[in-house]
Amino acid sequence: MDGRDKPGHDGKLALGSMSAPNPNTEALRIALTREARALGFDCAGVTGPDSIAPAGKHFRDFIDDGWHGDMDWLADRPERRADPRGLWADVRSVIMLGVNYGPDQNPLAILEHRTRGAISVYAQGDDYHDLIKKRLKALARWLVAAHGGEVKVFVDTAAVMEKPLAQAAGLGWQGKHTNLVSREFGSWLFLGAIFTTLELPRDEPDVDHCGSCRACLDICPTSAFPAPYKLDARRCISYLTIENKGPIPHGFRKAIGNRIYGCDDCLAVCPWNKFAQAGRETKLAARADLRAPALAELARLDDTAFRARFTRSPVKRIGRDRFVRNVLIAIGNSKDAALAVEAERLLEDASPLVRGAAAWALSQLMGRESFGMMAARAMVTETDESVRAEWRHA
């Protein structure tokens, strides 16, 4: 699961072509890497469309087990993901690119500040889709101009299995948390792909370097890993706070803590991060107002203020109501009774999703007797059954 995809969007861009012999030289490999780095990519590698056959079976098992939850777009035509040629029959080589977005501080430190919201590292800066797509297009144009062929570019929104392809291209390996791990950049790489009709020299695939380590599995607050290298997205906090459109299941609310958009725990704890370095792209760096925003401030956002606050941020894709739902879960977990006033105000919100989360937050912050009296009044006036169910459960 990515939690960063935009369902239903294929993310591809077709560029022009020129006729030229297919290059197959070490000189091209060096030139391609040099150009990629000049454009701001931190790593690059080449693999073939036939390089990820085992990943296709793992993906089908993931779908068959129902671990994709409500992400129906993942289950749509799975054969396109299992083999890049299912997405574009003419592809002969796949160029995988990575951009380092390593944080400049420990992402887990914010979890101790319960009145502040924890936003996943990748979403604290500008939306990486826009930045990386521009760079992919520039590199693709260079390739076509220099060597011909046809190309398509993809940035995390198409039916492309970026992580297995990145491992096959030598950028890293899929760790036990199912995310890519790099010996140079740890767990902090954004990935993009260029499909081309050119036959390019392939890089050696990377191999698994996890060994006996279980740090990423053991730290997961919701036990989302049934086994090493397997993820049940339905239990993942990234899924619950981003992809999940309804109320967050009661069994996971306490474990979410103050995470209001995504979760970095399994990434941040990886020992390979000791070799990582902070990202060099300023547009991906954390914005000051998104590092540790006050929950009270976020709870007051209406739709207009939400859009303004998260302009250019990936957070904007879930919309104000889902975001405030997450904030209210964090308020309920804050143990700060002073935040009850924010939740109480939102009992009058236009969104049933928000009102239901507000009811739960109050149940965690108020005394039993006071809350019981409030619930009795709410059951008289509340007309939405999902919100009434929240009051009854609380």
Shape: elongated
CATH class of the domain at 13-104 and 122-196: Alpha Beta
Mean pLDDT equals 91
Q: Give the spatial strand order of the biggest sheet.
A: 1-5-8-3-2
Strand content: 5-15%
Cα separation of the termini: 31 Å
Major beta sheet summary: 5 strands, antiparallel
SS field, number of helical segments? 18
| Estimated radius of gyration | 23 Å
Compute the number of strand runs. Answer: 9
Q: Please provide the ordered H/E string of secondary-structure elements.
A: EHEHHHEEHEHEEEHHHEHHHHHHHHH
Which class do the helix and strand fractions yield?
Answer: alpha+beta
Second-tier CATH architecture of the domain at 13-104 and 122-196: 3-Layer(aba) Sandwich
Percentage of helical residues? 25-40%
Fill in the CATH topology of the domain at 13-104 and 122-196: NADH Oxidase
| Uncertain ranges | 1-23
